[in-house]
Specification:
This protein has 11 helices and 10 strands. The chain is α/β, with parallel strands linked by helices and about 280 residues long. The protein has one domain: Spore Coat Polysaccharide Biosynthesis Protein SpsA, Chain A. The strands form 2 sheets. It has a 7-stranded mixed beta sheet with strand order 3-2-1-4-8-6-9, sandwiched between helices. Helix 1 runs parallel beside helix 2 and helix 10 packs parallel to helix 11.
Length: about 280
């Protein structure tokens, strides 16, 4: 029997974006998955959106919530990882709408000893707002011509929406983009996440995903580029939590992980008492 996949993504007080993301997962061709929503302290409006989907959708949806203590994505992600029932985990974000073959692609490319590195197409704010449930169900928001008609500037970035298996394979090979752990679109086996002790909870916003990926590489995992194969569109939003001090601290931690070839973070799943 094919292994079960857990989809993990974070959210924080973005109920409109959350609806669009869940509509996307409700259209998946591969249905052998669960959703684990890692909620970094959202209020009742977000909880209501989740409860409504739990009641109306056939998707298994688990809601992991923690009190609002500022940007604590690593902390809530670790809780979600431990609670995930899937053997394989796909990590995306609460502002990324997946194309209907998103999960199927991750499953097809999954391989022991590897993590998958994907990407996304970033949409402007007004277009992000304009996307409707119908646009997600019929796949319009993943269509280059439709996006251009809606005001998206024509460019090579639209290649990220290719439906050609051959072109996707070629572009994955040719792209100069590094195969890092991209928190919007990446995956590996849960056992590997546990082996590196999850995310580093000392880190707030800025580079925490790359640091996580660095330790997966130190563990011995190789990487696969799926930037043009596993497709999602990224809804725009402000980043009020971004600050220079956080970036500097996180960069220091990441550099130390690379220099010391660290595998396990000293501030992860085990130290949080999750296992």
């Amino acid at each position: 029997m094919p292994f079960k996949i857990s989809i993990i993504f974070t959210t924080y007080n973005s109920p409109v974006w959350l609806k669009k993301v869940l509509w996307g997962f409700d259209q998946q061709t591969d249905i052998n998955f669960e959703i684990v929503i890692a909620d970094d302290g959202s209020t009742i409006e977000t909880q209501k959106v989740i409860a409504d989907f739990q009641a109306s959708s056939s998707m298994p949806i688990k809601h992991i919530w923690q009190e609002d203590d500022g940007f604590q994505k690593c902390r809530i992600l670790n809780k979600a990882i431990v609670s995930a029932k899937g053997e394989y985990i796909v990590v995306t974000d609460g502002d990324c709408i997946p194309r209907k073959d998103f999960i199927a692609t991750h499953r097809e490319k999954a391989e022991p000893g590897y993590f998958l590195s994907g990407g996304y197409l970033k949409l402007p704010l007004q277009l992000s707002r304009d996307i409707t449930q119908k646009d997600i169900i019929n796949g319009a928001c993943f269509n280059s011509e439709w996006l251009i008609q809606k005001g998206f500037k024509k460019s090579h970035k639209l290649w990220k929406l290719t439906r050609s298996t051959f072109l996707a394979k070629l572009l994955n090979y040719l792209t100069p983009t590094r195969r890092t752990w991209n928190g919007h679109n990446a995956s590996c086996f849960k056992s590997d996440m546990i082996k590196i002790n999850g995310f580093d909870e000392r880190m707030q916003y800025g580079g925490q995903d790359c640091e996580f990926g660095s330790r997966l590489k130190n563990l011995g995992l190789k990487t696969k580029q799926i930037r043009y194969s596993a497709i999602c569109v990224h809804l725009d939003h402000s980043k009020s939590y971004e600050n220079t001090a956080s970036w500097e601290k996180n960069n220091s931690i990441r550099k130390a992980s690379i220099k010391n070839k660290s595998i396990k973070t000293p501030a992860g799943i085990k130290e949080a008492g999750l296992i």
